[in-house]
TrEMBL record:
GO terms for biological process: polysaccharide biosynthetic process. The modification N6-(pyridoxal phosphate)lysine is found at residue 191. It comes from Rugosibacter aromaticivorans. It holds the Pfam family DegT_DnrJ_EryC1. Signal peptide: none annotated. One of its GO terms (molecular function) is transaminase activity. The active site is at residue 191. This is Aminotransferase DegT.
Length: 380
C-alpha cells in the first residue's frame, strides 16, 4: 500500500513554485494577511490580462457569480438560463438570489450548452444567461453574443474552468459582447490557476465598482470624512493577501501551464486505444485551456467499478459532473430524468483522466495502458 500510494497519480495537482511559497511567507511575516496590497496587485494583473477591463477578486468563483447576478439585478420572478452539465455552483447561485434556473441541454460535440436550443428558450423573463466553458472549452462566443445581443439580458460567463483559454486568439475574460457582460473565474485548488480558494469577477463598463465592492464585503462603506454606512446587504466574499500572493505567482506561469496541458492532451489523443469505444472530447488545440481531459466510457461500462480498478492501479479518476438537475434539491423543484437527455447520458458516462502541468509524458502512457487493460477486462 505504501509503495502504491507513493506512485499514486491523482487526476489533478496544483503546481506551486518555491518563489510563490517565499512570497506567501513574506505576506505572513508582513503583519497584513487579509485583503490589502497583494489583492490590489492581483486585481491589476488580472485586469491587464482581461484587456484593461475592471476586475475584482473574490473568496470564490461562486461568490463572484452571485455578486454578478446581484449587480445584474436578477431576483425573484426572473429566470436565468444555464446548462445542467456543470458544477452545481452555477445553478445554486441562481437559487441564492431568488431567481429560477432554466436549463438547456448540451451539444454532445462540445458538451457545452446547445446554442440553438438556448436561442429558442429566451423569454421576456430571461434576465441573464450563464454559459459554462466545461473542461476549459469555450462556448462559441460569436454565436453566443449574436443570440444574446438581440435581447435586453446580461451574459454572465461562468469561466471558472476556462482561465487561460481563448476564442479566436482572444483571451477569455476580455470582452466578446457589447461590454455589458460579466466573466467569473474560479481559483479553487483544482483550477488551472489557483489561489487555494478564490475567484474573480470581470465587470462590464457600465457597472458601479463601488457597489460591487460593497456587495463583496457586508455592504459597508467609509466616507472621506470618516463617516460610515451600510446601504445594501453584502456578503463576506473578500480574498486574502495570502491567497493573492499565490495567484500572482501562478499568473506568471499560466501560459507555460496551458502549453504543457496541451502537449499532454495531444499525447492522450495519440496514445489512447481508439478501438475501445471511448468517446473523446473535441480535439480543440486552438481555444481550450484543457482544464480537464474527459472521456465517455463505452456503453454498459460500470463506472464505479472502472474507477475502483483504476485506483488499484494507482490512477485517480474524477467524475465532473453528473447532470445537476437530478440532485435531490433540483428534483424537489420538479426536474426529472429525461428532461435533458444529452446531459444525463454524458453525466452518467463521463470520467476525468489525470491532467496537470507537472505530469510526465510517461504518466500519460501509464494511464493509457491501465485504461486499455481495465476496459478490455471489463468488456470481456
Ligand atoms: C469551480 C467552479 C465554480 C465555482 O468556483 P468556486 O471557486 O469553487 O466557488 C463554478 N462553476 C464552475 C463551472 C466551476 O468549475
Amino acid at each position: 500500500m505504501g509503495e502504491m500510494s507513493m506512485s499514486f497519480l491523482p487526476f489533478t495537482r496544483p503546481t506551486i513554485d518555491e518563489e510563490t511559497i517565499a512570497d506567501v511567507a513574506g505576506v505572513l511575516r508582513s503583519g497584513w494577511i487579509t485583503s490589502g496590497p497583494k489583492v490590489q496587485a492581483f486585481e491589476a494583473a488580472l485586469s491587464a490580462y482581461c484587456g484593461g477591463r475592471p476586475v475584482r477578486a473574490f473568496s470564490s468563483g461562486t461568490a463572484a457569480l452571485e455578486v454578478a447576478l446581484r449587480l445584474a439585478k436578477v431576483g425573484a420572478g426572473d429566470t436565468v438560463i444555464t446548462t445542467p452539465l456543470t458544477w452545481v455552483a452555477t445553478a445554486n447561485v441562481i437559487l441564492e438570489v431568488g431567481a429560477t434556473p432554466v436549463f438547456v441541454d448540451v451539444d454532445p460535440a462540445t458538451r457545452n450548452i446547445d446554442l440553438d436550443q438556448l436561442a429558442a428558450r429566451i423569454t421576456p423573463q430571461t434576465k441573464a444567461i450563464i454559459p459554462v466553458d466545461l473542461a476549459g472549452l469555450p462556448v462559441d462566443r460569436d454565436r453566443l453574443y449574436a443570440i444574446a445581443g438581440k435581447h435586453p439580458l446580461r451574459v454572465i460567463e461562468d469561466a471558472a474552468q476556462s482561465f487561460g483559454a481563448t476564442w479566436n486568439g482572444q483571451p477569455i475574460g476580455t470582452s466578446f459582447g457589447d461590454r455589458r457582460d460579466f466573466v467569473a473565474f474560479s481559483f479553487h485548488a483544482n483550477k488551472n490557476l489557483t489561489t487555494g480558494e478564490g475567484g474573480a469577477l470581470v465587470l462590464p463598463v457600465d457597472m458601479d465598482l463601488a457597489l460591487c465592492e460593497r456587495l463583496r464585503l457586508q455592504g459597508f462603506q467609509r466616507f472621506a470624512d470618516g463617516g460610515m454606512d451600510v446601504d445594501v446587504l453584502g456578503g463576506k466574499f473578500n480574498l486574502t493577501d495570502i491567497a493573492a500572493a499565490i495567484g500572482l505567482g501562478q499568473l506568471k506561469r499560466l501560459d507555460e501551464f496551458t502549453a504543457r496541458r496541451r502537449e499532454l492532451v495531444q499525447r492522450y489523443f495519440a496514445g489512447l486505444d481508439h478501438t475501445l469505444g471511448l468517446q473523446l472530447p473535441l480535439a480543440d488545440f486552438a481555444n481550450s485551456n484543457w482544464h480537464m481531459f474527459q472521456v465517455l466510457l463505452p456503453d454498459g461500462t460500470d463506472r464505479g467499478a472502472f474507477i475502483a480498478t483504476m485506483k488499484e492501479k494507482g490512477i485517480g479518476i474524477g467524475v465532473h459532473y453528473p447532470a445537476l438537475h437530478l440532485f435531490s434539491l433540483y428534483r424537489a423543484m420538479g426536474f426529472k430524468p429525461g428532461d435533458f437527455p444529452q446531459a444525463e447520458r454524458i453525466g452518467a458516462a463521463i470520467v476525468t483522466l489525470p491532467l496537470f502541468p507537472a505530469m510526465q509524458d510517461a504518466d500519460v502512457d501509464r494511464v493509457c495502458a491501465a485504461l486499455t487493460q481495465t476496459l478490455t477486462q471489463a468488456l470481456a
